[in-house]
Every structure is written in C-alpha cells, then in structure tokens.
C-alpha cells in the first residue's frame, strides 16, 4: 500500500516549540496506529502514513492549530530560540512572518533556517544554512552553517544591521538564488563555496 510522508509542527510561541497534549492525541487518532512518526533534528515530526488517508489527516491536524509541510527537499519551518526576552523584544511577530514566507519552499536540498531573538543565539542560528540574529532594532544574517560531519563549522556573517522591512526579502533572495543555481542534493554550505558569497550578496542586493 502506498504511503506518504509529511511534516508537522506546532509553530512557536514564547517558551519555544511545544506540542499540546490534545494536539498529540488528535495526531495519533488522525494518522492511525499503523503510521510511523519520527522526531527530526529541526523540530518537526515526520509522519509516514497511508496515502489515501493523508489529506483527511492533514485537514484534522490543521483544524487543531498544527502546521503541515511537505517533507524532503524543502525549506524547513523556522527553527527558533525560546524568546526568553519576551515576544516584543525578541521579535516573535517578525519570526512568525519570516516562517510564513519561507517554510515549505522547494530547494535543491533540505534547507534549515534559524532565528534567535538576541545575541545569546540560543537557537543556534549559526549552525543553520541561514541564521538570523536580532540585534536590538536590526538583524544580522549568517549563512553556511554546518552542524554535521567531520567538517562541522559555524556560518559566517553575510549581512549586518538588516532592517525588519528588508529581512524577509533578503532571506527569500538567498533561497531563490539557491533554487535557481543550486545542484540537486547540493548542501547550501557547498553551494556558497561554489558560487561565492560575493555573488550571493550581489544577487540579493539587486
């Protein structure tokens, strides 16, 4: 019997990414006892279930406030800190807008985007493909983080003091350039090495 895999996340609030008990109860009932559920490193649940029942299950999950995204070679939902400095100071509304703008976009390889609301960077944005750090009233953007393999390394500062109005266009521009010029299964860090940060910066500014 054919199966389908999709990703589920509760979104985020002050305090982090949290599934409510009632959401997990509905999740279990909606996908069925024969489904397979895997916790990923980017705070999503991957659900593998019967394809013929998947659309109905997705609808039920969205009805209780869960977000559903495609699994595989897509931009993952935003990986955030816990907004410990509060919703306004840490930029919770900006993070939500960024998540809505980038999550679920097709990409040459899975793309992780991190966000932290202050310089403590507890959401580890520098280990993501694209990382955003709120610095008072502006944002620093890092790219090229690699958390896995023997060559794991933090990302480097790509642009600093980016305004709130420009944050989403810059991040979307990076993703668009990766979509247009990346090779199938090419990691974003390797892509940056191949095309150079200067070329990326020129494309985003243009």
UniProtKB/TrEMBL annotation:
Q: Which GO terms describe its molecular function?
A: methyltransferase activity
Q: What class of enzyme is it?
A: transferase
Q: Which organism is it from?
A: Paenibacillus allorhizosphaerae
Q: Report domain Nitrite/sulphite reductase 4Fe-4S positions.
A: 97-204
This chain belongs to which protein, by name?
A: Cobalt-factor III methyltransferase
Could you tell me which Pfam families the record lists for this protein?
NIR_SIR
Question: What keywords does the record list, in alphabetical order?
Answer: Methyltransferase, Transferase
Does the keyword field hold Acyltransferase? no
Domain of life, per the record?
Answer: Bacteria
Mind telling me which InterPro entries this protein's record contains? Answer: NO2/SO3_Rdtase_4Fe4S_dom
Enzyme Commission number, as recorded: 2.1.1.272
What processes in GO biological process is this protein linked to? Answer: methylation
């Amino acid at each position: 019997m054919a199966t389908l895999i999709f990703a589920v996340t509760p979104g985020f609030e002050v305090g982090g990414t949290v599934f409510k008990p009632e959401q997990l109860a509905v999740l279990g009932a909606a996908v069925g006892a024969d489904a397979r559920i895997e916790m990923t490193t980017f705070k999503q649940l991957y659900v593998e279930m019967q394809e013929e029942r998947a659309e109905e299950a997705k609808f039920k999950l969205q009805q209780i406030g869960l977000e559903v995204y495609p699994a595989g070679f897509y931009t993952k939902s935003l990986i955030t800190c816990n907004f410990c400095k509060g919703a306004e100071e840490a930029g919770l509304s900006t993070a939500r807008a960024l998540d809505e703008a980038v999550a679920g976009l097709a990409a040459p390889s899975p793309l992780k985007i991190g966000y932290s609301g202050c310089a403590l960077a507890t959401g580890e944005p520098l280990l993501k493909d694209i990382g955003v750090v709120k610095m008072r009233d502006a944002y620093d953007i890092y790219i090229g983080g690699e958390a896995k393999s023997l060559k794991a390394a933090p990302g480097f500062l790509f642009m600093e003091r980016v305004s709130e109005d420009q944050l989403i266009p810059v991040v979307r521009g990076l993703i668009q350039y990766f979509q247009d010029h990346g090779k199938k299964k090419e990691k974003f860090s390797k892509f940056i090495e191949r095309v150079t940060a200067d070329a990326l910066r020129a494309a985003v500014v243009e």
